[in-house]
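Hi there, hope your week has been kind to you so far. For a while now I've been wondering how a particular protein folds. I'm sending you its amino acid sequence along with the backbone structure tokens. Could you read through the record and tell me how the tokens relate to the sequence? Take your time with it, there's no hurry, and the full record follows here.
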Amino acid sequence: MKIVYRRSRQEMPARGAEIHHAEEEGIEFFLLTNPTRFMGDEKGRLTGMECLRMELGEPDASGRRRPIAIQGSEFQLETDLVIVAVGSGANPLLTQSTPDMQLNQWGYIVADPETGKTSKKGVWAGGDIVTGAATVILAMGAGRKAADSIHQYLTWGW
């Protein structure tokens, strides 16, 4: 598993312990790297991601140093799955466009904490869309539980 992040480790919006635990789990970090394009095969399946190396410029409005692209530094990573994680709040587009999915009082998706199953058959959820802003480690744990549940679903049914 890899994490691609356009700033350096110091600018990551995560606690040091979270980063340390991710590294202990075998996560490979591509820092000062920005995805620019996803690539697929003739069947439309994801095969890779083009990335661009970055360097840090002056601080932006958040106080973090702004990433600047290094022209000509493109490279490709092989991958068959990408989870785009930008921001720490739930995207209301998903919840507003799925009226038959149960939400809690804060507008987050209601999901079983052990399986990630939602009120909509065949749909799982985890991470910030369920808990609100939390840690990357909790989101990764929810993803693993959901993956196990999805495997069971595909093997045995709902």
